Structure formats: C-alpha cells, structure tokens
Amino acid sequence: MKKTILLLTMILATGSLFAQSQADKILGTWLNEEKDGKIEIYKTGEKYFGKIVWGKELYEPDGKTSRTDRKNPDPKLRSRKLEGLVILTNFRYDDGEWEGGKIYDPKSGKTYSCVMRFKGSILVIKGYVGVTWLGRTTVWTRV
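Structure tokens predicted for DUF2147 domain-containing protein (143 residues):
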C-alpha cells in the first residue's frame, strides 16, 4: 500500500512539473514582429507579464532622453518612460495558452484583451476587443 501511494505521489508530481515547464516556456526575451522592440516576459506568482527592454524608438533623436508614453489616454501616465513599461499583464497558463491578460500598445495608447500561444517556435499573440475573432494577430520570435 505504501509503495502504491508513493508511486501515485511521484506520478502526480511529475505531471505537475511537466505542466509547469510548459507554462514557463514563454519566459524570456522576444523580438516583436516589426523587429523594432524587445519584450521580456517574466513571471510573478502564477501570472505572466511582459515589459519593454529595448526599442528603436525608446529615445529622442539626441539618444539620451527617454521617450514617454505620450499616447496614453490617461494624462497622468503620459510622462512614464517607455523603457521598462509593462505591456503584458496578468496572463494565466491554461491548456497550451496564456489567457486572461491584457496587452497595451504604446504606439496607439490602447489596451486589448489578449491570448498567446506557440506555433512551433514562434509566439502568436492575438489582441482583441470583445471576441477573439475580431482581433489582430502578431508573431514574436525568441531572442
């Protein structure tokens, strides 16, 4: 009986570790489709987030002054720097997808519901309003 319980515990733990490793497959640095920005996806607790870590348009022409989130609809947030800006928030992993989160587009100042999934080695990201089929898809590649 003890051997059966031990074996069952080991099987459950292995399955849990496999699911966790699949969920964490998204962690790392990604190059956006336009190849003008890098986003680092990280985990806090059981949720996944992403922040801008590099971009061609992060600095003013002087190369020293950081650009700000000037298209944000909230005037109080327009002075925050684009570098380090969190654009992916509160994603949960479920059955091969990261869902329930939001994606912020600093180029337009708009926030969308979002779902992410892998297709081979690329990350397919779909931002949408209301229902997923009304959305726009972009693909990111791992750096």
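DSSP finds one helix and eight strands in the chain.
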